[in-house]
Amino acid sequence: NAGVTQTPKFRILKIGQSMTLQCTQDMNHNYMYWYRQDPGMGLKLIYYSVGAGITDKGEVPNGYNVSRSTTEDFPLRLELAAPSQTSVYFCASSYSQDRGHGYTFGSGTRLTVV
Amino acid sequence: AQKVTQAQTEISVVEKEDVTLDCVYETRDTTYYLFWYKQPPSGELVFLIRRNSFDEQNEISGRYSWNFQKSTSSFNFTITASQVVDSAVYFCALGVTSGTYKYIFGTGTRLKVLA
Fold first, then answer.
1. pLDDT tens-place string over residues B35-84
2. CB within 8 A of A3, min separation 6: which ones?
3. Nearest-neighbour CA in chain A from B23: distance (Å)
4. How many CB pairs under 8 A join A and B?
5. Residue B41: closest CA among chain A residues belongs to which residue?
6. Which residues, 6+ apart, have CB-to-CB distance to A39 below 8 Å?
7. What is the sign of the dihedral through the CA atoms of B23, B67, B11 and B33?
8. Is the CB of A38 inside 8 Å of chain B's CB atoms?
């Protein structure tokens, strides 16, 4: 039972480079989310998806893009990396929109932009 | 405004001491959920508990207990007889909709349990 799998676990990017953070879940969850965690801060929602083909912006979407072509996958794209995007990124999924369902989180991707 | 405040940035205790982590929330929703997550040094986020706004019963799970008080908008977390393995960052979160389904996280409390 893999749950939510994120790759890579660590990455160093140069300013201006692009990359895709991969996220896949095997629980058939419709709802998926991308959060970033900055030091000493809570998690901030970047983008979320309520199902395949449907995505929407969260609190801090600038500099990122997402797609949801399948239920399982929810990749996060950074087009022009900036030092402000240095953070730990978490992908999460949940069974439904019921606010009572907790998230299942991936193990995170630590990204450094230099 | 929707907000979660964890005023304690870092707490250090000696093993076997009891410790309480505070969480204060703000929301206009009448129906909402509160959560606690643990983030150990390895970095993953582990779900600990969920409580809905209509259930103010306290909950105990082993050495963990939670005190939910709507009157003070608080959802505090107590670890009894703390152990070194409890060392982690603990996040409180609020589940609301307000047009966008999301959770609002507090900034976390780092707990250090010293042997």
1. 999 999 888 888 898 888 888 888 888 999 999 999 999 999 999 999 99
2. A25, A26, A27, A104, A106
3. 13
4. 64
5. A107
6. none
7. negative
8. no
